[in-house]
C-alpha cells in the first residue's frame, strides 16, 4: 500500500507501521461526512500539508507526570521504551502551536474528551467561511 501510494499518511512509529488508508477517508470527505483520524504529530503535519483546511486537535495529558503514571500502569513497556515515549511526548507537546485546538485528556474521563471534540465539530460547522475538504 505504501509503494502504491494508498495511504493519506503513514509512518513507522516505535518499530511499527501505521497509516491512514485513502480509500477509507476519501469517500467520506467527498460526501461531506465528518471524518476523524487519529494520528501522531508527524501524521497531523502530513495531513495538514495535503489538506490545509483540516482541523487538527491535540490530545494532551494533564502533565508529563500523569502520562508517565498512565504508561507505567499499562505495564506494556520496559523502562527504556517508557523513557523514549516520554521524551517523544515532551517533543510533541512542543508542537502544540501547530494545532487548531487542544484538549486535556484526563484519565477515566473519555466522555469529556468526546464532548469537547463534538463541541469543536459543532463550532467548525458554524464558521462563516466553511472549510472544504477533498483529496
Could you characterize what this model shows?
With 135 residues, the protein is α+β, with helices and mostly antiparallel strands. It has a domain at 38-125: Rossmann fold. It has five helices and four strands. The strands form two sheets. It has a two-stranded antiparallel sheet. A two-stranded parallel sheet has the order 3-4. It is globular, with a radius of gyration of 16 Å. 4% of the residues are buried. The model has no long low-confidence stretch (mean pLDDT 89).
Task: Give a short summary of the structure.
With 135 residues, this protein is an alpha+beta fold. Helices cover 45% and strands 16% of the residues. The mean pLDDT is 89.
Oligomer: single chain
Number of strands: 4
For the CA atoms, what is the radius of gyration?
16 Å
Uncertain ranges: none
Helix content: 40-55%
CATH homologous superfamily classification of the domain at 38-125: P-loop containing nucleotide triphosphate hydrolases
Determine and state the CATH class of the domain at 38-125: Alpha Beta
Q: What is the general shape?
A: globular
Strand content: 15-25%
Main beta-sheet annotation? 2 strands, antiparallel
- Separate helix tally: 5
Average the pLDDT over all residues and give the rounded result: 89
CATH domain topology of the domain at 38-125: Rossmann fold
Helices and strands, in order, run as EEHHEHHEH
Broad structural category: alpha+beta
Q: Reading side by side through the largest sheet, how are the strands ordered?
A: 1-2
In the CATH hierarchy, the architecture of the domain at 38-125 is 3-Layer(aba) Sandwich
Give the N-to-C terminal Cα separation: 17 Å
Amino acid at each position: 500500500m505504501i509503494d502504491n501510494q494508498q495511504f493519506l499518511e503513514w509512518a513507522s512509529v516505535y518499530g511499527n507501521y501505521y497509516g491512514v488508508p485513502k480509500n477509507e477517508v476519501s469517500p467520506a470527505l467527498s460526501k461531506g461526512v465528518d471524518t476523524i483520524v487519529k494520528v501522531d504529530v508527524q501524521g497531523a503535519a502530513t495531513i495538514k500539508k495535503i489538506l490545509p483546511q483540516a482541523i487538527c486537535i491535540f490530545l494532551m495529558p494533564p502533565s508529563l507526570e500523569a502520562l508517565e503514571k498512565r504508561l507505567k500502569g499499562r505495564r506494556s513497556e520496559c523502562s527504556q521504551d517508557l523513557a523514549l515515549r516520554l521524551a517523544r511526548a515532551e517533543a510533541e507537546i512542543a508542537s502544540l502551536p501547530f494545532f487548531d485546538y487542544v484538549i486535556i485528556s484526563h484519565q477515566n474521563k473519555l466522555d469529556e474528551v468526546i464532548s469537547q471534540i463534538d463541541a469543536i465539530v459543532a463550532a467548525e460547522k458554524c464558521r462563516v467561511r466553511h472549510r472544504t475538504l477533498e483529496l
